[in-house]
Write a structure and sequence with these properties.
The protein contains eight helices and seven strands, in the order ααββαβαβαβαβαβα. By secondary structure, it is α/β, with parallel strands linked by helices. A seven-stranded mixed sheet has the order 4-5-3-6-2-1-7, sandwiched between helices. The chain is globular and about 50 Å long.
């Protein structure tokens, strides 16, 4: 009787963990997107991640068209403090503690804020070095999330994996992510994510790959 394939088994077509990391980092370095999957005993989901400082309107349209449509902007804590973006709620009771802040919109250069172009404008505004709190309206159609300062050692989430990949690729510590869904509206699990990655020529890497690499480096 055939046994269901494990995470590692399904991901093996994309190479070893080290090769998967290298491919993902190179794609991020070039301004492209990657799929990051978490543990099968956690959310067991995959997010498409792009570097925020390179996101294009076409890439944003792809996220809106093929994913959940909830486009998130991942930022470090110090950046969110500078922009005066407080937590969405005072007491976070989310199952995995995802640290959403209030949602945002660029004050200028957008219409309704919903279009791909408007969301890119909002992201570019928020990550600009000279952005001030008053440059962002609240609420809006882009959802910032605070990355745990302790990184993947503190929280094995897509949020922390996003910042980890940006650092590895030498990009600004800011990323855009959106969860991959199936056409029928259900969440894509690993078999569907692998097929999606192949169809759209996206590297795929797991949070376990990234966390394991950090552990190896710490004992080397």
């Amino acid at each position: 009787m055939n046994q269901p394939q494990t995470h590692d088994g399904l991901l093996s077509r994309f190479g070893t963990p080290e090769e998967r990391i290298a491919l993902a980092v190179e794609r991020i370095r070039k301004g492209g997107g990657v799929i990051v999957v978490d543990d099968d005993d956690r959310e067991n989901e995959g997010d498409i991640i792009y570097p925020a400082d390179a996101i294009t309107i076409d890439q944003m349209a792809f996220l809106i068209r093929t994913c959940s449509g909830i486009v998130c902007l991942i930022l470090p804590e110090e950046r969110l403090e500078r922009l005066d973006l407080p937590p969405m709620v005072s007491a976070n009771s989310a199952r995995f503690g995802t640290a959403f802040t209030v949602s945002i919109e660029a004050r200028t250069g957008v219409t309704t804020g919903v279009s791909a172009a408007d969301r890119v404008t909002t992201i570019r505004t928020a990550i600009a070095e000279d952005c001030r709190p008053e440059d962002l309206a609240r609420p809006g159609h882009v959802f910032p999330i605070r990355a745990n300062p302790g990184g993947l050692a503190a929280r094995r989430g897509h949020t922390e994996a996003t910042i980890d990949l940006m650092f590895r690729a030498g990009r600004k510590p800011a990323g855009v992510l959106c969860e991959v869904m199936n056409p029928d509206g259900t969440m894509a699990r690993l078999p569907e994510l692998v097929a999606f990655a192949v169809e759209h020529d996206l590297p795929i890497v797991s949070i376990a790959d990234l966390a394991g690499d950090h552990r190896l480096r710490s004992v080397a």
